[in-house]
Write a structure and sequence with these properties.
Blueprint (H helix, E strand, L loop, with lengths): L2 E3 L2 H7 L9 E2 L12 H10 L12 E6 L10 E5 L2 E2 L2 E3 L8 E3 L11 E4 L8 E4 L2 E2 L13 E3 L5 E4 L5 E9 L2 E12 L2 E9 L5 E5 L22 E3 L5 E11 L10 E11 L6 E6 H4 L25 E7 L2 E6 L4 E5 L5 E6 L19 E8 L3 E8 L14 E8 L9 E6 L13 E4 L5 E4 L5 E5 L5 E6 L6 E2 L4 E3 L10 E6 L4 E2 L2 E2 L3
Antiparallel strand pairs: 1-35, 2-36, 3-35, 4-5, 4-37, 6-7, 8-32, 9-11, 9-34, 10-33, 11-12, 13-14, 14-15, 15-16, 17-18, 18-19, 19-20, 21-22, 22-23, 23-24, 25-26, 26-27, 27-28, 29-30, 30-31, 31-32
């Protein structure tokens, strides 16, 4: 039976996070044996060095435990640089291979990595893997995770459907946030959690908005799944989906049709106070939609998703808003009216787009550089819409330069069009575009659970798949330089074993 050893008084003093040590073998070459020596573990941190001259004192297996409920960083024991002490779990299709640890009850997905051995941008990967559509068994554990770009687990959050795990500065301090809740058909109701650099929960935003829902359930928390972006006022911009009625005769639907009204809310995270509200139905004609009715709108349980808000972010005194189902990025002014439209097929107020710069069903529009005369804007161009509009056009990352104020005689210029010709991907929903140091870009392909890092000249230099395409998903993914200092001490479970390998463990994160 395993023996439990209390080393809390030692580890608080001896483990300066973030730190990771690798194994040495006192009896010859390294072996893939999970055997650990507590005396070596303590001595190594006392003297801060690795050595092969320690005496053989009897081997024990050490498993490091962590509380799932706190979502804290756990200590990961490594077999060597770039290798984890995990096993690989598999199961019937569509289950994607997953990691198994003796030390912790976490099962993050295995990353199937293709690397061209070029220097990557620094940072850790922030992922929210889950099943696509109804639970299908494609994802062993649904939870927010932080991993290295070699797939090593750094932090595992609580088991819950999650999205948009990200890092921002809230009230001057680095803060993690993620959405968790319930979603179906691209519509979600949930809460947004903020964590500090010790993975402690500092606040939870659970808006109760009195929304009408398709199933008529009054969800306890009603933040939408699509956005949680921080403003320079330390307020949070979120989306929400409300079911209501509208005249759809202009798009071939019923006069008394049922629709989703996409709402934008600006909320003070600390108090929960709603500071601003915007409704798509009040400001955008339904005729701008590209989404087919496809049998919806006849009843409350199947409302027509004509707008489908896919991102919101502050831009100056207004909001940059992306609508997946109108193929349009809007600038909403401080008075809530539309200042301009960038439409993916026509260019909208900006004049015709170059053919290879057109976009459709897009996600994650973000302003990059703005002056009084120009705007650089990036977005993830799905070019496909599951399940109605699947095309032979692959999904791409686009960066465009726009003339301000809009002038139809000055067409937008294409600055970047990112895709891997050797591995075209057709993402029918979701996705993100993130600029990284050294002019690199990280694309997440949403419904196709693949990440790709592109270098400064637009070459795909690293790709990782973390799920079965169209059965697993990741709404967005990001890469950040993140440094955490967990406040909890590791728990060690020790059991007698043979073998001659000696390993050491330390905090990651």
């Amino acid at each position: 039976m395993p023996k439990t050893v209390d080393v809390s008084t030692l580890t608080r003093q001896l483990i300066p996070p973030p730190l990771c040590m690798y194994p040495v073998d006192v009896n010859g070459p390294r072996k893939a044996v999970k055997s650990w020596r507590v005396t070596f573990f303590v001595t190594l941190y006392l003297f801060g060095k690795t050595t092969t001259s320690f005496p053989t004192l009897g081997d024990v297996d050490v498993s490091l435990l962590s509380s799932r409920n706190s979502g804290q960083s756990f200590n990961r024991c490594l077999l060597g640089p770039g290798q984890d002490s995990h096993r690989i779990g598999t199961g019937p299709s569509p289950l994607w291979p997953y990691q198994i640890f003796d030390s912790v009850p976490f099962n993050p997905p295995v990353l199937n990595i293709t690397s061209h051995r070029q220097n990557l941008a620094p940072g850790l990967l922030f992922l929210t893997p889950s099943d696509f559509g109804p639970p299908s068994g494609a994802t062993k554990e649904v939870a927010p995770v932080i991993v290295t770009d070699s797939g090593q687990l750094v932090w595992n959050g609580p088991s819950a459907e999650a999205a948009d795990l990200q890092l921002f500065t809230y009230k001057g301090r680095p803060t993690l946030s993620y959405w968790s809740g319930i979603s179906s058909n691209g519509v979600g109701y949930g809460k947004i959690t903020f964590l500090d650099t010790s993975y402690n929960e500092i606040l939870t935003l659970c808006p109760q908005l009195n929304l009408t829902t398709p199933d008529n359930i009054k969800y306890a928390c009603q933040a939408g799944i699509h956005e949680a972006s921080l403003t320079d006022r330390n307020t949070l911009l979120i989306d929400a989906y409300n079911v209501t009625m509208a005249d759809l005769s202009s798009v071939g639907g019923p006069v008394h049709g049922w629709v989703f009204d996409n709402l934008i809310l600006e909320i003070d995270p600390a108090s929960g106070a709603i500071l601003y509200r915007w409704s798509a139905l009040e400001h955008i004609p339904i005729t701008e939609t590209k989404q087919p009715l496809a049998g919806t709108a006849r009843n409350q349980s199947q409302p027509f998703d004509w707008f489908h808000l896919s991102s919101i972010v502050q831009m100056g005194d207004g909001l940059l808003v992306s609508s997946r189902h109108t193929w349009t990025v809007y600038l909403v002014g401080a008075d809530s009216n539309i200042r301009w439209r960038l439409q993916g097929a026509t260019g909208g107020d900006f004049g015709p787009l170059p053919a290879n710069a057109q976009f459709a069903w897009q996600h994650h529009a973000r302003p990059r550089h703005m002056s009084n005369t120009s705007l650089t804007l990036s977005l993830f161009n799905n070019a496909n819409n599951y399940p109605y509009n699947l095309t032979s056009i692959s999904s791409t990352g686009l960066e465009l330069n726009l003339t301000l104020p809009p002038n139809s005689s000055h067409s937008p210029a294409l600055l970047e069009r990112l895709h891997d010709p050797a591995n075209p991907i057709y993402a029918g929903s979701q996705g993100s575009y993130q600029t990284l140091p050294h002019d690199h870009v990280l694309l997440d392909y949403g419904q196709v659970p693949v990440l790709c890092e592109y270098n400064a000249v637009g070459e795909a230099i690293w790709t990782a798949q973390y799920g079965t395409p169209n059965r697993a998903q990741g709404y967005r993914a990001f890469k950040y330089e993140w440094h955490a200092t967990p406040t909890t001490s590791p728990d060690l479970t020790v059991k007698k074993s043979g073998g001659g390998s000696v390993d050491a463990c330390g905090y990651r994160g």
